[in-house]
């Protein structure tokens, strides 16, 4: 009876455990497998390159999963989605990330996009055309980030404070340390993320991927640390 019980409980324990161990291993294996070289890709029909591009647009792993769960599995599917607002709703992305993803996926090279730069918004037209922050004059083609406006002589682009090294400068990245600037209104959030150990390259993408409620929680931590 003891042996029977032992055998029974052993058998009971063994089967689900073994099965779980197996699926766990399989899941691990699937995750580790670099899906670039042929074979079935995870994350829907996106290739490794496409996934990397999507991540470079600020999409997090969970964002990518939501996208796939919503049925978006290839670049063509974005055409069905149609516009950034729909994509944002579908996959729970921020408008900023959704806009960048759609711009890439649909290839609206000529379309303008609006970037929220903290307090004010300034319109970035297709390519690298910059309009002066002060007088709205379109800057010449050879304009480089940090140049003075050809019309009013003020710095044409807004200047940002770097959350990582606290240097100041125009453009998208800090010239001192290379960190990506975050919108001025989110500087304190970025500094808080830095303090919490987020890597330099991950702060701006992380902020972009955050939902409003996640940012609210982060603001709470900022206030508590004051
Ligand atoms: Zn100007
Ligand atoms: Zn810096």
Would you kindly provide a written description of the structure presented here, covering whatever features stand out?
The radius of gyration is 24 Å and the shape is globular. α5 crosses α6. A hairpin with a 6-residue loop joins β3 and β4 (168-170). With 226 residues, it is mostly helical. 46% of the residues lie in helices and 7% in strands. The chain has a two-stranded antiparallel ribbon. It has a two-stranded antiparallel sheet with strand order 3-4. It folds into 3 domains: 43-108; 110-156, no CATH class; 158-226, no CATH class. Bound molecules: zinc ion (2 copies).
Overall, the morphology is globular
Query: What is the SS-derived class?
Result: mainly alpha
What is the chains' assembly state? single chain
Our Rg estimate from Cα atoms comes to: 24 Å
Order of helices and strands: HHHHHHEEEEHHH
Percent range for helical residues?
40-55%
The number of domains: 3
Individual helix count: 9
Spatial strand arrangement across the major sheet: 1-2
What share of the residues does DSSP label as strand, in percent? 5-15%
């Amino acid at each position: 009876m003891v042996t029977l019980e032992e055998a029974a409980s052993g058998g009971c324990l063994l089967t689900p455990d073994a099965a779980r161990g197996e699926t766990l291993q399989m899941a691990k294996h699937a995750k580790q497998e670099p899906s670039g070289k042929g074979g079935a890709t995870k994350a829907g029909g996106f290739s490794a390159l496409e996934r990397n591009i999507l991540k470079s647009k600020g999409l997090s792993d969970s964002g990518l999963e939501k996208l796939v769960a919503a049925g978006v599995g290839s670049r063509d599917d974005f055409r069905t989605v149609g516009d950034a607002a729909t994509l944002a709703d579908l996959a729970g992305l921020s408008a900023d990330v959704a806009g960048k993803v759609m711009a890439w996926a649909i290839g609206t090279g000529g379309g303008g996009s609006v970037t929220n730069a903290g307090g004010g918004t300034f319109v970035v037209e297709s390519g690298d055309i910059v309009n002066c922050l002060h007088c709205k004059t379109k800057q010449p083609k050879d304009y480089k980030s940090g140049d003075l406006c050809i019309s009013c002589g003020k710095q044409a682009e807004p200047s940002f404070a770097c959350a990582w090294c606290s240097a100041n400068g125009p453009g998208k990245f800090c010239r001192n340390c290379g960190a990506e600037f975050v919108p001025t209104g989110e500087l304190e959030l970025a500094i808080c993320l830095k303090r919490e150990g987020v890597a330099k390259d991950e702060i701006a993408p992380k902020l972009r991927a955050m939902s409003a409620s996640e940012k609210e929680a982060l603001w709470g931590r900022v206030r508590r640390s004051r």
